[in-house]
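RECORD TYPE: inverse folding
INPUT: structure tokens
STRUCTURE:
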């Protein structure tokens, strides 16, 4: 539930801050895919002379907030000023189960006196409001929830990997395959603090995921390949083992005939090395002159 109790007027169907105004987003019923991406053709409609003028004057902008709770994917996509349509592309590997889309209008700059003719003066008798850059000015009525059950079950790498703090651990990293349904990567306090700090930047998350996921997955694959029947029976109730077995069956991979587990890992985590190189280029491209 969205909190609509703001100190300034907010255009939404859940209140009467605006008179005879409306804001909404829309998208096609079908979600097309293009290679590794889904493409969302988003549009918005806005009936508010004042807010439309603020958008034209670059004092406000229309954004789509996209979120996948399972993978902690969260991104803002901005409509170009003067256009009420935009195309959003999202890598399918960053999503699983459900993608939620919400539309907002947010302030582009701080205003000491925010007042529009369409504001309901009965609600704001004290006069103009003060708003900060980034404050929400409108919330779209519709919320789109796109089911993604048919997407790659390993697209959420956290579905089989879990990174946790072990406060008593001296080694940088240890791996627990047996205690949980996920392969648990345990970090000592120093390394875990650094991991959390780096994880706050969205651009580094693919790099971090690959840094931990790939070598651990390679080790897990060798563990499966070299285990006897009794050990495999013990693993069979673990979610990470079930997901890997399902994925390898889909890809027609038999570990009995595979010798290079790094190549197998790249097949399971589709394009993981390419995506990581793209992330490196995004983060460090300007530093090395690659994005000129």
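DESIGNED SEQUENCE:
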């Amino acid at each position: 539930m969205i909190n609509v109790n703001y100190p300034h007027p907010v255009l939404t169907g859940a209140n009467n801050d605006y008179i005879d105004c409306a804001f909404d987003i829309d998208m096609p019923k079908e979600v097309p895919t293009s290679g590794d991406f889904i493409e969302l053709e988003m549009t918005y409609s806005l009936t508010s002379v004042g807010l439309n003028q603020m958008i034209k004057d670059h004092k406000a902008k229309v954004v789509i907030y996209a979120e996948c709770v399972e993978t902690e994917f969260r991104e803002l996509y901005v409509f170009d000023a003067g256009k009420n349509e935009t195309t959003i592309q999202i890598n399918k590997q960053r999503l699983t189960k459900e993608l939620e889309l919400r539309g907002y209008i947010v302030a582009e700059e701080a205003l000491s006196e925010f007042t529009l003719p369409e504001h309901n003066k009965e609600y704001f008798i004290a006069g103009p409001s003060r708003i900060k850059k980034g404050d929400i000015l409108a919330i779209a009525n519709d919320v789109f929830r796109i089911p993604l059950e048919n997407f790659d079950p390993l697209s959420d790498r956290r579905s089989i990997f879990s990174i946790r703090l072990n406060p008593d651990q001296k080694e940088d990293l240890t791996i627990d395959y047996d205690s949980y349904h996920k392969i648990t990567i345990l970090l000592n306090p120093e390394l875990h603090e650094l991991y959390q700090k780096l994880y706050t930047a969205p651009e580094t998350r693919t790099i971090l995921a690959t840094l931990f996921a790939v070598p651990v997955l390679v080790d897990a694959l060798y563990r499966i390949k070299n285990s006897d029947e009794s050990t495999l029976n013990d693993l069979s109730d673990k979610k990470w083992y079930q997901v890997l077995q399902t994925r390898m069956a889909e890809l027609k991979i038999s570990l009995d005939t595979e010798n290079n587990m790094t190549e197998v890992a790249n097949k399971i985590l589709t394009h993981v090395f390419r995506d990581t190189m793209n992330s490196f280029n995004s983060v460090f491209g300007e530093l090395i002159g690659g994005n000129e």
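NOTES: Residues 37 and 105 are 26 Å apart (CA to CA).
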